[in-house]
Structure formats: C-alpha cells, structure tokens
C-alpha cells in the first residue's frame, strides 16, 4: 500500500498592532484573505484586539462578549481585558495570536521591552512560518529584532511617509540598524523609497495598494445621474486636515447652495471640526444631508454604496502613503481633488488635470483657497468634472486586486 504523502502548506505570519479599521489594517486583512484563498496557511499576529476591527470571512477565531468556555484573555489598545475563542471561527481558517504583555507579565520599562521581544520570538518559534510580513513603524523594528536569530525571512512594510513612521531618534536609529537584515522592505511609492540610504534602498520593493473588491464590483453611476455632493472619507485627525475642505466649502456654498458636503469617518478632531462647521453656519444637524450644509456621517460600512453617486471627492492630507480612499473614489468615477502631499501617493495616482486635480502643498489658507477655486471651476464647467471622473476609472485596471495580489505573491515566492 502506497504511503500517503502530506504536502505542507507554506505559512505566512502577518504582524500588526491590531485589525482596527484603518488603511494599513485593511490592506493586511485583504492580503490575509488572498493568501488563504490560494492555499497558504495564514496567521495574523496582533498586539491587541481592537473594539472596532475588520471582520475576516475566514477567521478561525471568534470574539466573545464575556468569559466563557475556551475563552482566552487578551487586551484592547486601552489595555482592558477582552475575550476570544481562538478556535471558535472557521475550522482551519486564518489563525490569530496576540502578543501584548498581560499585567502579570510586566516589569519596568527596560524589562517590558525585552519581554515583548521575547514574547514575539516565542510566537515565531511556535508558529514556524516560512515568512513574516510586518506593517508599520515600531512593529517592523520589533519583528526584525525578535526574528533575527531564527533564520525566518522578515518583510517589513512602511505604509506612510517614512520620515513620519520613523520620526523619533530611537526608532530611526533602530530602523537604520535592523532594516538591512530584512528580506525585503515594501513601500507604496517611489517617493517613499528615496527616504532610505543605498543599502536599505537596494532591498526596497514598490507594491501599491489594491482596490477593495467592494469598489471593483460596484456599478459606476453615470455623471448626469450623480448628486451635487462633495465627499471626504478618512479618519478625522490633524494629518487628514479636513478643515481645508470645510473652509473651502463654506465659501463655495454661498454661490452654489444646492451642493452638500458629506464627511465620512471618525477620530479625535471630530468635535473641533463640528464646531468649525457651526461657526461657519454650514453644520447640518439633521444628519440627512441638507443643501448647503456639511454632514458628519461617522464611521460606516459599505462606503462604496454611500459615495458612488457623489460628484466630487476631496482628500486634504498633510502626508499619505498610497491613500486607499483616493483610489476607491477614483474607481467609482468621482472627480477627485487631492493635496499633492508627501510621500507622493496622490501624485502616483493623479495626472494633474487629466484624471483629477492636485493641490500644491502650501499654507492651510492658500490650500483652502485653491480647493475653493477648483470646486468653483468644476461646478461651473461640469464637462471638466465628467471628463476627469471618466479618466479616473483607469485605476480599476492598474490597481485591480488580482493584478496587485499577484505582485505580492510573486514577491513572496522569490523570498521563500
């Protein structure tokens, strides 16, 4: 009788702080689902369990409301206890491990650092992956330091402007020492690659974000059927700088009162932005999207359904890697306006005047004025907006998930 041969699946561990609803987290979740779908074993290693996470269709774990049989104690980012059944989801699905130090494991600051590294090392030894993929600043440094003695290839990915991710002296020094030991360094733009010295640059690979399947599958609304709506999508924080579009809109609606501004997302500057809208007398307190008003829509699911029939999308960030929200708006045929911010993600997507408008980086007052002037031009000449929205649809091919995921697969196969 012939001996049964078992073919071992290649195993990729993907490491990030949590699966909180953010751009980097969504990319990692999409990659996890893709590699799982083509036959890889995939494990997500996160420090924390966020209270607002992306849901993976093939997750092997299940979040529990309270302690129960098979419950494992984990921490959320505020270090409050949460409960997970690590085998309560899909059998043989995408695995999950948690690496936060529990309260009883903590010591002083120096001890905690070494214990975090050791906890990661223990996890890698137990999981025995063929490759580790890490996302974002400190995680990248810790992934390299914890795996350096194990002979496991580590790919680190810088998801934003490198000078922002490695702003502190300590992180920047650690990056310079440890990145040369990486199997690869993934960046999203050519501009990001220029940040690094020759040794690290030689290990860099530019891999863009793919468009979420939700947007690829969505119908494109003809321009003549679109509503007079301007949308902004993203976390409400200082970097996203939504006050630019709010100030521009407050002047724009004086001449075009039939337009609305819909702001999607949540975050620490929401209260300040709400007060600004109130001060400018453009706050929609009904939540229904009143003409001439700005409405805060909060963090919502199925964003493609919400914005697909809008005319204009505006991104006002101070820095961006490869902005998911901009790619997605372009894939729906919106006419897109974006700051030309470092490290060049918007400029990689938009050919100024052909498939969107880039606003040069300047003072907030000048940028808001430029956005106002651009909105005026588009409202008064809809043919321009229609033409640019149509050209923007080309991103559907260039950043198609099948194409981008295949780039990741080929890259990982080379390294493994």
Give a verbal description of the structure.
- The chain is α/β, with parallel strands linked by helices.
- It has 2 domains: 214 residues, Glycogen Phosphorylase B (Rossmann fold, 3-Layer(aba) Sandwich), CATH 3.40.50.2000; 186 residues, Rossmann fold.
- 38% of the residues lie in helices and 18% in strands.
- A 7-stranded parallel beta sheet has the order 6-2-1-7-8-9-10, with helices on both faces. A 6-stranded parallel beta sheet has the order 13-12-11-14-15-16, sandwiched between helices. A 3-stranded antiparallel beta sheet has the order 3-5-4, with no helix packed on it.
Label the structural class: alpha/beta
Residues in β-strands, percent:
15-25%
Q: End-to-end span in angstroms?
A: 34 Å
Mean model confidence by pLDDT: 93
Query: Order of strands in the sheet with the most strands?
Result: 6-2-1-7-8-9-10
Approximate helicity band: 25-40%
Q: So how many helices?
A: 17
Number of domains: 2
Shape: globular
Radius of gyration, in Å, reads 23 Å
Query: Quick one: CATH class of the largest domain?
Result: Alpha Beta
CATH fold-level assignment of the largest domain: Rossmann fold
Total strands: the figure is 16
Low-confidence stretches: none
Question: What is this entry, summarized?
Answer:
The chain is an alpha/beta fold. The protein is 38% helix and 18% strand. The chain starts with 10 loop residues before the first strand and ends with a helix.
């Amino acid at each position: 009788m012939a001996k049964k041969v078992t073919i071992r699946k290649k195993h990729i561990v993907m490491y990030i702080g949590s699966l909180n609803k953010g751009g980097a987290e969504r990319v990692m979740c999409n990659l996890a689902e893709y590699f799982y779908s083509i036959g890889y074993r995939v494990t997500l290693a996160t420090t924390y369990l966020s209270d607002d996470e992306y849901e993976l269709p093939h997750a092997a774990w299940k979040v529990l409301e309270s302690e129960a049989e098979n419950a494992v104690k984990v921490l959320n980012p505020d270090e409050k206890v949460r409960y997970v059944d690590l085998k309560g989801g899909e059998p043989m699905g995408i695995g999950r491990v948690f690496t936060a130090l529990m309260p009883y494991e903590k010591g002083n600051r120096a001890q905690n650092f070494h214990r975090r590294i050791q906890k990661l090392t223990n996890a890698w030894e137990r999981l025995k992956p063929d490759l580790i993929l890490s996302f974002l600043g400190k995680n990248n440094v810790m992934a390299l330091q914890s795996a350096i003695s194990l002979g496991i290839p580590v790919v680190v990915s810088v998801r934003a402007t490198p000078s922002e991710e490695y702003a502190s002296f300590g992180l920047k020094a650690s990056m310079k020492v440890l990145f040369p030991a990486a199997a690869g360094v993934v960046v999203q733009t050519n501009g990001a690659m220029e940040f690094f010295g020759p040794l690290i640059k030689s290990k860099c690979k530019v891999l863009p974000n793919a468009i979420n399947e939700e947007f690829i599958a969505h119908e494109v609304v003809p321009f003549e059927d679109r509503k007079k709506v301007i949308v902004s999508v993203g976390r409400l924080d200082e970097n996203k700088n939504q006050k630019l579009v709010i100030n521009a809109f407050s002047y724009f609606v004086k001449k075009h009162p039939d337009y609305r501004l819909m702001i999607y997302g949540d975050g620490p500057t929401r209260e300040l932005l709400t007060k600004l809208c109130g001060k400018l007398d453009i706050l929609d307190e009904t939540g229904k999207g009143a003409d001439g008003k700005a409405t805060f829509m909060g963090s919502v699911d199925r964003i493609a359904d919400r914005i697909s029939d809008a005319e204009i999308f505006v991104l006002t960030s101070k820095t961006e890697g490869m902005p998911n929200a901009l790619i997605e708006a372009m894939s729906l045929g919106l006419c897109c306006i974006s700051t030309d911010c470092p490290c060049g993600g918007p400029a990689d997507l938009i050919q100024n005047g052909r498939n969107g408008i880039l606003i040069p980086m300047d003072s907030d007052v000048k940028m808001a004025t430029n956005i106002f002037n651009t909105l005026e031009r588009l409202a008064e000449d809809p043919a321009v907006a229609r033409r640019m929205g149509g050209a923007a649809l080309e991103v559907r091919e260039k950043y198609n998930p099948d194409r981008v995921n295949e780039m990741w697969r080929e890259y990982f196969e080379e390294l493994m």
